[in-house]
Amino acid sequence: MIEDRRSVTLLALLAFLASAEAATLLGAPLCPDPHGVHAYAHPEHCNSFFLCTNGSLSLEYCENGLLFDGHGAIYNHCNYHWAVHCGNRKADLTPDSSPGCEHQFGLYPISDACSTSYIRCAHGHPEEEHCDAGLVYDEKSHNCVWPDQLLPYCNPEEIVGFKCPHKVPSHSAAAKFWPYPRFPVPGDCGRLITCVDGNPRLLTCGDGKLFDSVSLSCLDPDELPHCANNV
Q1: Which of 61, 65, 115, 167 is most exposed by smallest CB count within 10 Å?
Q2: CB of 188 closer than 8 Å to CB of 181
Q3: Domain 162-229 falls in which CATH fold?
Q4: Residue 159: its pLDDT value, please?
Q5: Where do the DSSP E strands lie in 142-213?
């Protein structure tokens, strides 16, 4: 029994020394906590990072198209390369392409035209994703945005299906919200249209509220019983 305990203690000591030696050689800090998972940036390379799993240190590599900075994670602690700030660390952005994907991981426009959808690549497999209603994909920001933010590339009236009037009756409900007049979406209590600099934007009330087509205000669902199907 004593020999067994000594063997276990020796193995634990060797494991600790191996971890310490690896940390020294790789330039990584020792695992600060023997429990849990902790990831740390490599001091020189943005494509790799150190991972401590229950006190065990390993050198990990981001998938193609991803880099590590410790903020946000798309896959295995790594984020899209355009969202990572590497500082002085070197980043290899050489594409590893497959049909429909420049990198194994990434977001890409679905076409050269203004589009309400885009391509998300994961492990080299492209999947079509759709923006929320009324939004379009912006290749520069890698996000879905209001179509009027991409003028003249996008036509907000075509995307939203509404043309903003140049003026509204002075005593109308819409006039109360000028210069951002509001308008209902026929048959839809869940959304509304507002005009910004003459361009339509499709919105939702949020906070569990619904849009009243008479007052053009967002109200609690119990105040709009005819909108029960939109709750």
Answers
A1: 167
A2: no
A3: Antimicrobial Protein, Tachycitin; Chain A (2.170.140)
A4: 96
A5: 143-145, 182-185, 188-196, 199-204, 210-211
